[in-house]
Fold each of these.
Amino acid sequence: MIKNAIVSAETIIKIPFHDVDMMRIAWHGHYVKYFEVARCELLDELEYDYISMVNSGYAWPVIDLHIRYAKPATFEKYIIVTSAVVEYENRLKIQYEIHDEKSGDRLTKGHTVQVAVDIKTNEMCFASPQILLDKLGVE
Amino acid sequence: MIKNAIVSAETIIKIPFHDVDMMRIAWHGHYVKYFEVARCELLDELEYDYISMVNSGYAWPVIDLHIRYAKPATFEKYIIVTSAVVEYENRLKIQYEIHDEKSGDRLTKGHTVQVAVDIKTNEMCFASPQILLDKLGVE
Amino acid sequence: MIKNAIVSAETIIKIPFHDVDMMRIAWHGHYVKYFEVARCELLDELEYDYISMVNSGYAWPVIDLHIRYAKPATFEKYIIVTSAVVEYENRLKIQYEIHDEKSGDRLTKGHTVQVAVDIKTNEMCFASPQILLDKLGVE
Amino acid sequence: MIKNAIVSAETIIKIPFHDVDMMRIAWHGHYVKYFEVARCELLDELEYDYISMVNSGYAWPVIDLHIRYAKPATFEKYIIVTSAVVEYENRLKIQYEIHDEKSGDRLTKGHTVQVAVDIKTNEMCFASPQILLDKLGVE
């Protein structure tokens, strides 16, 4: 479980052949894709996916990414990516944890931070727009 | 040299770590990226890159891709990608050959076929638009 | 259905955000990954996956790839990749068809060809080794 | 310039078409590749690349990654990736800064942390092995 989760989701991913490097483990850069897939699923559940974001007048670029690798993932291993919104007032911070589906071992954790950018003015918003709060069901 | 080349270009690429699979060779799917980089360089020379294409009113989706692998490429190997326009009347066919920069061995060859699609109508063009002929300097 | 299929499999893939290009469609090169995921699933069903291949003394590099693109796939679209072994005597040829999960439209088709390489001698085999025939349940 | 750099390198990369997302900017996950290419170049200069690492008896997995995005990079933009070793005693910490080649604007910065793992015992080393210090020319 991710602490202080306002809303969370779980995504299962199978490590494909083309993600495995010559050390026979998933190359560390591919975890950003695993986070992306998990985040999209979480945002889908909130009914605030990329298309809805653009339609609501805001882009939400990622401005910060952190990943901490504890154990490697190997070819065809199933991993569970848990993602959770942990901050929303001024920026959208999502926390991730990746566990081995079989052993339950925690392999990786990390976070991304996104900020709202008004598409018309191209200005960064210092407070998250009302639409995000509505989607999260918070005040 | 590519036969029947109307115009051609050469691009040098160094195989990066994240392209090498657990067989210790560049995964076969990454060659599509090497072709893409080479094609962009060729189109840049013609002053008909993606942005110019869109500005001219046409998208040029790839409708056909073929790659023939003869020898593998390994980590940090330098490869030379030769690309050449070999057909243009009804479709844009580009041929590729990849050689090992050091040994001169031919590693791979292939082609892509693109067709013009009118962005306004979303209709495929059965003959290439005049703009392509102008850029190629043919009649 | 793929004609002359000796054995086949179906794989569902959701187009992720990072596969979609600025034309708002899945970049044509990513289909090689979709084929790879489908092929691994097919080979898993045959109990002749990459690890088993290596353990049996053979590598099976892809020597030929062909993709024919009919219609594009967009962000978050679900696609069904059907893969089938259509040749095995001298080389392993797998045919692929990709359909839109919702509309049923065929988006793409293609094939890959692999040949057995004896890992000890690094020699290409002109006839497929007995192990492949055993796994396929053919004589 | 990166502060406290023990040794540094500069790498120029051109943003390829397949790295650009539907927001028309390089997808944030691709920066891990830009860091990887820069790190390999830096390690090549130290004559301690992946192959030398393995030959010296150590693997150096990345255990921590951080990226801070300030400004986006667009299609065909040239970026300069500066990488520098900033810590080596107990772990190998490399800092990165990415600048727009034309405007000089800083687009991104980040770091990676790697630790030595003894390949024979698969144990993590709490102090960096002598070979790294020798390659860095420090005591």
Note: Chain A has a mean pLDDT of 96.
Amino acid sequence: MERLPLEKKVLSENDRLAAGLRARFREHGILCFNLISSPGSGKTSLLERTLESLPQNERVGILTGDIQTDNDARRLARFGFPVKQITTGGTCHLDARMIERGLEGWRLLDIDLLLIENVGNLVCPASYDLGEAAKIVVLSVTEGEDKPLKYPSIFFKAKLLVLNKVDLLPYVPFDIDAAEENARCIHPGMDIVRVSCTTGDGIQPWLAWLEQRRHLQLAARAESVVPERARAALR
Amino acid sequence: MERLPLEKKVLSENDRLAAGLRARFREHGILCFNLISSPGSGKTSLLERTLESLPQNERVGILTGDIQTDNDARRLARFGFPVKQITTGGTCHLDARMIERGLEGWRLLDIDLLLIENVGNLVCPASYDLGEAAKIVVLSVTEGEDKPLKYPSIFFKAKLLVLNKVDLLPYVPFDIDAAEENARCIHPGMDIVRVSCTTGDGIQPWLAWLEQRRHLQLAARAESVVPERARAALR
């Protein structure tokens, strides 16, 4: 009972910081995604596949969250892009202040795409805005097709569902069509890509989704820039 | 910052309620386990395998937690033992008060073994005592062998690690010996069983572990009863 008002206060403080981050990302033309899943669904593997596919002149930054260890940052650093580990030391999610601190020392003008890998947890990270353009939820086919119904908040909030480990479909009792149906029951119109980070299947559609979001962002920016110029001309 | 004192207060209130539950369990000779894992690691499947293996005259009760849906209670009810779903409606863990309420309407004298399936979350449930005799952590081989290092709290607190889905070992890059080593690095002397709820491999050792805990509890009770009787005789 008594917890609610403080939880609201913490979340509204987080919202304030996240709004600041979002404004900075917009100002510097950074497209930011927040990847959320259970532990072991394959967020880091998806990032590995992504980074190995991007040209070296891509201006990507990665913040990766964990309760303990810098394993993920070490795995991701070998692709040559700037990577920073955020170790929460017990906290079950990343919050906007951790992202602010994580960005310290980076020139935001040098980044076009910021990928945030959240702590492995399908529940709590859904409540914390990090200033991202979109949340992305990763669900692996070993986890059961009813997960969108059991953990609706993140499926409702994420723009994209990445159904990972499809190479394991022959070995697990997972109905992938039912999983998609359950996700769209919670979030009609949700984008979905099926991938295997092990075989590389589906990585192209995933990269195409990222690219499409980039075009949408550029188009939105262009639209917002034109009226500004028009206004300037009228002054 | 400001969150900590209240979190401590919430946890100490939970500890108080959990101590009450533990006393009631002891009084009624109930052995209680709290199963914790990520979503989809196989807690419900493990319970299904357990319930199908137990004789119908076993006096077992099951409380199963989820944020939404009563899917798990429906899956587990078909074995004929009393099952209740606890739907948290958003909360990322079970707490002692939810267990208290879940037990309402059950005659505790009719239960010998109480199995609690927590919300799928490898982080937050570790902080909440439910009055159990032991926490049990389930990790599936699809999740990566570094999880004990990344989520140390639950591996430190659990008496037993159930390494599930070993039937998938040929298809995933999971080093099961490294996983056990990581778990024992966090918690030396931790018990570990390897199981596949799909094939039934390892279910016998798991049942034997439960049985052994029951004998330990009975032995502890007998020890505590004797001095009481002795005290009574001296009055």
Note: DSSP finds eight helices and seven strands in chain A.
Amino acid sequence: MNPSQVPTPDTNLEAYLQSAQSSQLEDLSDWLRIPSVSTLSRHTADVERAAAWLARKMEAAGLQNVETVPTDGHPIVYSDWLHAGDGAPTVLIYGHYDVQPVDPEELWNSPPFEPTLRGDNLFARGASDDKGQLFAHVAAVEALLATSGSLPVNVKFLVEGEEEVGSPALYAYLPAQTKKLSADVCLISDTHILSPDQPMIIYGLRGVWAGEITVNGPSQDLHSGMFGGAVHNPNQALAALLAQLHDSSGRVAVPGFYDEVQELTESERIALAKVPYGDVELLQESGAPAVWGEEGYTVTERIGARPTLEINGMWGGFIDDGFKTVIPAEAHAKVSCRLVPDQHSSAIGPMLEQFLKQIAPPTVEVSVNTLQHAPATVVPLDVPEMQAAARAYKTVFGVEPVFSREGGSIPIATVVQESLGIPILFMGFGLPDDNLHAPNEKLHLPNFYRGIRVGIALMQELISS
Amino acid sequence: MNPSQVPTPDTNLEAYLQSAQSSQLEDLSDWLRIPSVSTLSRHTADVERAAAWLARKMEAAGLQNVETVPTDGHPIVYSDWLHAGDGAPTVLIYGHYDVQPVDPEELWNSPPFEPTLRGDNLFARGASDDKGQLFAHVAAVEALLATSGSLPVNVKFLVEGEEEVGSPALYAYLPAQTKKLSADVCLISDTHILSPDQPMIIYGLRGVWAGEITVNGPSQDLHSGMFGGAVHNPNQALAALLAQLHDSSGRVAVPGFYDEVQELTESERIALAKVPYGDVELLQESGAPAVWGEEGYTVTERIGARPTLEINGMWGGFIDDGFKTVIPAEAHAKVSCRLVPDQHSSAIGPMLEQFLKQIAPPTVEVSVNTLQHAPATVVPLDVPEMQAAARAYKTVFGVEPVFSREGGSIPIATVVQESLGIPILFMGFGLPDDNLHAPNEKLHLPNFYRGIRVGIALMQELISS
């Protein structure tokens, strides 16, 4: 750009944002090509590559003190820009560069790690959860630094590679780093908005308990023709146990499960009823034959404000092609619970195991192994940062955001909130049909570019909040 | 051997049988090294190699008209020796050269396709089911032809490579070959005896129905945090359906399942009570924590004379290492039923599907796909060939065999019995703890060598029956 034609800062920024779109897309696509699946050990080197890629990108964007912190698991990436001056607030931006596994891979319409543009959408594992959403904030910082040389607020990035496996390294890292990470507000873009034109601020996220149920029967696999009918089949026993985890009204049947649950207040039910999402939208997005769930609650309430128990995986016996007449020695289920205030996430595993041991027949043995747990998070609606967030959305989208509670969990959010003592802004720009954790994950590109603008607008709004 | 020292035929045979043991073991081990797993398409070439190996062995043993019959699936191997002269009976010896899959392979103490001798046992997939047992009859023919140049009876071998996948090729082959396969009796060694010193003749085998249950829910995998509690999880729905397939007394709860079942007669119950096998033996062999099954029946009755329904495999959702919070689009179970007279094997699939569709909630769809089915077989105890079989066992083991009904199924036996109109002798020499269809399958070698002698004795006894 010719110095004699320097435009006003805003015009300058606008021109930058328009011309940078193709390189932003190219950069993000580069990152998405790295299969950083944190839960599969065969991808460990890929996860490290994704961390190194991000560190290089942060340097290029003008962020400082870029650090790739080794941990017992996958690295944490830190960087900052702290020159906003006296009195300027500090924003801690959290995200994760690890992604979910891709199976069943045969259901992807394009390879999960070959980002593919179809219409307005970029298809790739991690496009929305969370590489795309996190990248937008790096791009927002880059845009401001490139066009004005500074940021209105101080910024710290804290990015982990273990969000999809329960954040063990970050749990260990946080308590000792509260000074380094001190900030006034934490921004997390790992949620979705209602539709491309309707932003939404999540003020509550459910907690989670996840674990494995194992049923043991005979000491080795048996021939079902020679032992069937006289030995209790662990598959059958597990099915019977799993069938007893819900009652006929869709409630979780584990005794004590609802004891600490905060019932929804009338005003909260009225607020949630305003969320333009119901049975029709649920059926459309899920393709399910019918709505299901706890009697007496709307789907928005079931998903956002009620606890659940889901069987995420189950397996036992012969599951390859063809046929094998076997009674397996054991059968397994991976189960997760979404939790709401004030459920104690640490109590769920023992509670479930006690119930299962009590209802299991003497013909099998059952045990429960906890893999991760974290309580629910709720952010007060009246903090000034929440209002700044609402204005930032309004500036970019032209409409007020709705406030909702969401079904997903970001366990680390609770820890950030508690250890740093700061409010959290869940300002996503994913969409409900982004196929998170499923085949054909995508990112709606118009919202990706809007996300960059929201990141910029938030930095600007926070100085007046 | 020096012609001037030719011993009497029996001494000659005895010397042969003693000196041939090491080469018989070596030959069988060669065959067991070929991983002829019929149900896995990656082993197709191995299955063909196993057929070719058998054909060569038959030639070497002195059998004639050796033929490897190509089919739509795996080849059938035929051979015969038909020079016993006018009036001599003909024995059709059936067996199979295919084997079960080996998973879970990590539980094998030695590689499944590297036959390993530990104590008196040879460990390998197929050692007992059925390569070892079939090989014994080839070795019996070889021994007689080598020492006396002839057999007392005519012999035909019919060996398939699809027994573990429902014998489709043999079903297609048999009806057109009834003349070629015509015989007076069929001998099948694919069952077990009670203990190394107690032979047993199986006079009844259960039939089988095998198929897959599929539960479909949402049109794609969903994030359980965003849809859990509002969409019916197919894993949960399948578990609930499977849990309803048995009632609390261990009976199959599918309406109509027992309608055609022949109840045991009092005399049959008395006979089965003499089988020295009960709760203690069952627990010892299976390693199960407790006995299970249909109330009002002993374990021998449950296994041999009552129909069953077993879940051989089930799977849905994320079953890899780690964790994935998914609601799967579908969940599956592989189910098999063992059937008794006079259950119609073709009726089971529709019966099961009708029941499942009736009890399934509108929030999922359920379907049943039949993979194979065959009715039960019972052989009259009073045919003369059955008495010849008893004498053959007595000659070799020194004790009378017991008569029992067994839980396993050899569907093709029914077809042989019906299409050729001949009785079937189930004269096994496997043992109950041979780990058929499980890790560490083994063959008890003393019984392998006795099996060869039983084969010889049977040929000799049949001419006087």
Note: The mean pLDDT of chain B is 93.
Amino acid sequence: MNMKAPWITYRPEIKVMDCTVRDGGLINDHCFEDGFVKAVYQTCIAAGIDYMEIGYCASRKLFATGKSGDWRFCEEDAIRRIVGENDSPMKLSVMADAGKCDWRNDILPKKDSVIDVVRVACYVHQIPEAADMIKDAKDKGYEVSCNLMAVSTIPEPDLDQALEVMAASDADVLCVVDSNGALYAEQIELLVKKYMAAVQCKKQIGIHAHNNLQLGFANTIEAIIHGANRLDATMAGLGRGAGNCPMELLLGFLRNPKFKIRPVLKLLQDHFVALRGQMDWGPSVPYNLSGQLNQHPRMAIAARSGPDKDKYVEFYDKCVSEG
Amino acid sequence: MNMKAPWITYRPEIKVMDCTVRDGGLINDHCFEDGFVKAVYQTCIAAGIDYMEIGYCASRKLFATGKSGDWRFCEEDAIRRIVGENDSPMKLSVMADAGKCDWRNDILPKKDSVIDVVRVACYVHQIPEAADMIKDAKDKGYEVSCNLMAVSTIPEPDLDQALEVMAASDADVLCVVDSNGALYAEQIELLVKKYMAAVQCKKQIGIHAHNNLQLGFANTIEAIIHGANRLDATMAGLGRGAGNCPMELLLGFLRNPKFKIRPVLKLLQDHFVALRGQMDWGPSVPYNLSGQLNQHPRMAIAARSGPDKDKYVEFYDKCVSEG
């Protein structure tokens, strides 16, 4: 039997994006203190991480701004308060949700911004707006990713059509996004192969996994095996609901010596041990169930935020009765 | 592209073993109260689980018995106190460690015991004693498994030799055991294929995964894909160190309608929420690191049991300095 070990080498094309502040902001309405955001930023640089996504560029006109934190809007001043001119090799990203941002006005020309990447997030019915957003961001000078969300819920013909549009767009990256945390490895394999076939080597494929089934890390590895070169992860897996692929696991797996895990461990002990007492995330039973049932995590999030957070049977009965 | 979905069917040959009390006993010196063990036992039956491993049959002569609980010894009286005559379709298992049990005397003839299965656990240097233990248990009338531990640390020639001995034995099952929780999916694939080739369809292959890298469940699925039909899991993943493949995830994945998840959810809310405050298990950072470094979890267990349990950098420096 061939016992060679491809996993001890590495693929230089692989790049890692930290989404801690962006995805984690969905737990606390984007209200991270500057000290925390700076610590994540500096850790990412020290760890050799390629990209950091700092938040959303939602529209202040569309959303009440009173309670949401700065990382929902990512205005240039707020970002520069943390990163200055970002005098580092790490690129900065913002996520632009179709239907939630005034992208024509709020996304500045690249020359006026410290941001490098715009990731356009959309549901499948929003593909037409996403296509316009991709063109706008590309014309303004940004690297662009298209993140088609909740792929586990998209019927095959719709996905094929969406992939045709995305493949024809100017986006540099198409990202497989398992918003429900519902996919198993074999499904990740099929999707990554499908996305790879659609782009015909002209774009990179990314993976954004959620951890409902404790498969966030495993599915990221599976995507790597089949050719994904853009990997999303977050510190301690921080992110909405069950959270994401944990950065400390991903960096421990990747063999490229440019990645350093020690700065991440320092960040975890200095900031995330305390955060565990203040925010709820990770693959608890309600998220296990919403993943198994391929449901949006909103019911599980509601369950986990109240006194019934550990009433698993009641939650299960509710999930299957509404099915 | 072929988009058929083999994962929505099931393989009737697959059988699940609950190891909650056995592996979990390594955290609390096997001191579970009868009420807890009974609850696990009754839940396993209600959930359609095929086997329950209730503990070790260590020798009372070899070990001081003052502080260890009954589930380290699994004397017939203790087991019957929980299960009576085990009037259920579920089979009961005990684990017999090479070098730690007086198997000739302590393992009764099958006709005198409510136990159905003996799982012989050994390190690779103990294969000769394990072979004797397998023969003894088989001659006494039991179904027998051979669990060669810490396979991630065994050099290839040693593993090949051990597999030759185990394949020639009367064991019904050979189990791939990732004691260090160090293996990635591609390694699981190679090992399961190697074990399958060794037994030439004459025995079943099992998988016992640990969860150091949040891969316990993923690696169990990977083993299934490549032919493993004997799956170990524990309620809430309870088990030494990072714990095991969580039963609630595994049952949610398996499609055989005989398995029911709801009784497991009831057990988790009634017993395991409280247990979280009393025992430490699961893939915390020190276990992530011992898995990444393919080390025995003993240093991580020591770290997690003291006031420095969240001093990750110090722990990392200690791990790599001893390398």
Note: Chain A touches chain B through 46 residues (CB under 8 Å).
